[in-house]
Design brief:
The chain has 277 residues and is mainly alpha-helical. 78% of the residues lie in helices and 0% in strands. It contains nine helices and no strands. The termini are far apart.
């Protein structure tokens, strides 16, 4: 029986190997076949008993791995995601201040890249962590908030900074600079402070900071833009200057909406409900 059994087992293992070669999802089948078909002939156990032992080994190993990962070594994916998002927000705040500081003289392409390059790297890192976090959510290993809305919001905020950067390549006309300097400084400072404070709130899983200063500064900037248009001071702008002037205003309005989404994401991460309006 020994020789025939070995030949029979070997033939079955060969057939399983062929099947595994045609279907990558079954690439571990030959290893399992060797354990189930060949080991019994060595240990004098029946194939059925060997298969049952193998299943029990896998079940015990899976349960042990699950308990170790959940109880002894819990995943830090969401802590890493919060930290990556906070670093991204800090970088965005510094970039916004740098863009508005350079607006008065105009920024060249190399300066724009230097200011914003790190944001893309931070977002790529956050995206990789977010993918892993969502796999854990799908497997119900973690019951944390969805990372996708936060990632999408940060991507939109980056697009806002790109628009502001394009507008900052040329300085505003000299006639408008005295009127725009103070509103822009206040808006940029308030937004940068809010971004940094929200990043810290994500790290600590606390509620977001108040957005009142951001809204007040953006309202003041919008009111100044309306006043300049009403006074006819924008009529004399060249086509290129007018395009950048209104693109900057549009970018700030888009950022206003995206900061509201950021606030909502921070509330979700802190486990808070939306405040009553």
């Amino acid at each position: 029986m020994g020789t025939a059994g070995h030949l029979g087992s070997g033939g079955r293992s060969a057939r399983i190997t062929v099947i595994a070669a045609t279907n990558p999802r079954l690439r571990v089948a030959p290893v399992t076949a060797i354990i189930v078909l060949l080991v019994p002939s060595i240990t004098h156990a029946t194939p059925v008993a060997s298969a049952i032992d193998r299943v029990l080994e896998v079940v015990v190993g899976g349960i042990t791995g699950f308990l170790v990962s959940v109880l002894l070594l819990p995943s830090r994916t969401y802590e890493q995601a919060a930290d990556a998002a906070a670093r991204t927000l800090d970088h965005m705040g510094r970039a916004l201040r740098a863009l508005l500081t350079g607006l008065s003289r105009g920024l060249n392409t190399s300066e724009l890249h230097r200011i914003q390059d790190g944001i893309g790297q931070s977002l790529a890192h956050l995206s990789a962590i977010s993918t892993e976090a969502e796999h854990e959510r799908a497997a119900r290993i973690a019951s944390e908030p969805d990372t996708a809305p936060l990632l999408r919001t940060l991507l939109r905020l980056r697009h806002d900074l790109v628009m502001i950067g394009r507008a900052a390549q040329l300085p505003p006309p000299e006639a408008l600079q005295p009127r725009l300097r103070s509103p822009l400084e206040h808006a940029g400072g308030a937004i940068a402070d809010f971004l940094g404070a929200t990043g810290q709130a994500l790290r600590l899983r606390r509620g977001p900071p108040p957005r009142d200063a951001v809204e007040a500064s953006l309202d003041a900037y919008s009111a100044e833009i309306t006043a300049l248009r009403r006074e006819g001071l924008t009529h004399a702008l060249s086509a290129d200057a007018a395009e950048r002037f209104f693109a900057l205003a549009f970018a700030f309005e888009q950022m206003r909406q995206n900061l509201k989404d950021l606030e909502r994401c921070a509330r979700e991460w802190a486990g808070q409900s939306e405040p009553q309006r």
